[in-house]
Amino acid sequence: MPPNEKEINNNLFDQLSIVERFEDALNLGETEARKEIERIKKEINRKLYQKLPLISE
Question: What are the residue ranges in the chain where pLDDT is below 70?
Fold first, then answer.
């Protein structure tokens, strides 16, 4: 099933947030940028493997 507009917008907002966090971390230095990258990887993995709620229609 193709994603609806709301799902697409949510994905784009998530991507924009990640880019902004990278920019902020880069301003703090390489070590902080690497730490932020690791945090983001963990968050993405949690979202990737979470169980979606059951929706009854």
Answer: 1-2, 52-57
Which pLDDT does position 54 carry in this prediction?
A: 63
Helix (H, G, I), strand (E, B) or coil at 34: helix
Answer for the pair 13, 28: CB distance below 8 angstroms, yes or no. Answer: no
Give the span between the Cα atoms of 32 and 46, in whole angstroms: 21
Quote the CA–CA distance of 33 and 19 in Å, as a whole number: 11
Predicted pLDDT at 16: 92
d(CA 42, CA 36): 10
* CA atoms in the 13 A half-sphere facing the CB of 39: 10
